[in-house]
Amino acid sequence: MKSFMNPDDMRKYDDIIDLPRHVSKTHPQMPLSDRAAQFAPFAALTGHHEAVRESARLTDERVELNEDTLAALDEQLRHIEMHLDEKPGVSITYFTPDSKKRGGSYITVTGWVKKIDEYKKAVVLTDGTHIPICNIARIEQL
User: What is the pTM of this model?
Assistant: First the structure.
């Protein structure tokens, strides 16, 4: 590598080149961990990585159910309601809207029906899961 200093200029520092490093008597020495933090990478675009990851995250579109499917679901719910004392086992697939972007995801839960809440229009499982009836896509009785 070529030196940018002239050899004559290099000789100007011959008198101080071998002197010990100065240590202040009034200011404490900075810990090595703090010194290293000064040279940590600078994140100019804070949150950019998370924003890119969020926009790349895929969501499902909600499928609109036809009249026959809605009627079949309604019939299944009535059958479940008639047998609530038996705590019927079910596997329910329902749509959950995404809170950050358009679309959502389909979730399947398996459990025992505790009640069908007419006021909140939801199926309540024994584990406390509330499933909005309007979001149900499929019910399988176990």
Answer: 0.63
Contacts of 122 (CB under 8 A, 6+ apart): 116, 130, 131, 132, 133
CB-hemisphere CA count at 13 Å for 84?
A: 12
* DSSP-derived secondary structure for 19-71: SPPP--SSSPPPPHHHHHHHTSPP-TTTTHHHHHHHHH---BPPPPPPHHHHH
And the tokens for 108? 């399947």
The count of residues in the chain is 142
Banded model confidence at residue 106, pLDDT cuts 50, 70, 90: very high
CATH entry, 67-141, from 2.30.30, 2.20.28, 1.10.287, 3.30.70: 2.30.30
